[in-house]
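Me: I keep going back and forth on a fold encoding question. No explanation is needed for now; the record alone will do.

Assistant:
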Amino acid sequence: MSKVSLDLSLYEQYTKGYLNACGASFVKREIEYMPFAAKLITYECGIRFLTDYLNGDTYFRIAYPEHNLDRCKTQMELVRDMERKFDVMRDINGMEIC
C-alpha cells in the first residue's frame, strides 16, 4: 500500500486536458466538484471490488483468490491519499484553465 498515491502532476495534466476539451460545456459548480467526483468514483470502484469479492468473484476476472479484496484495499488507500491531497486538487481545479 505504500506505493499507492495520487500523482498530482498527472491529475493536473488530466484536468487541464479535460477542461480544455470540454470545459466550455460545464458550469463553474461542475468544475468545482471534479476533485470530489474523482474521489467518489475511486471509492465506488473499491466498493465494487469488495462486493464482487464477497459475492464469490463473479464479475471481475481474478488471478488469485483474494485479488478483488486486494483491489479494494488499493482503491481505499488511493481514496485516503486523495483526501490528504484534496485541497491541492481543489486548487488545481480552481486555476484558470480555459
The two ends are 36 Å apart (CA to CA). The mean pLDDT is 93. The chain has five helices and no strands. Helices lie at 8-22, 28-32, 34-54, 67-84, 86-94.
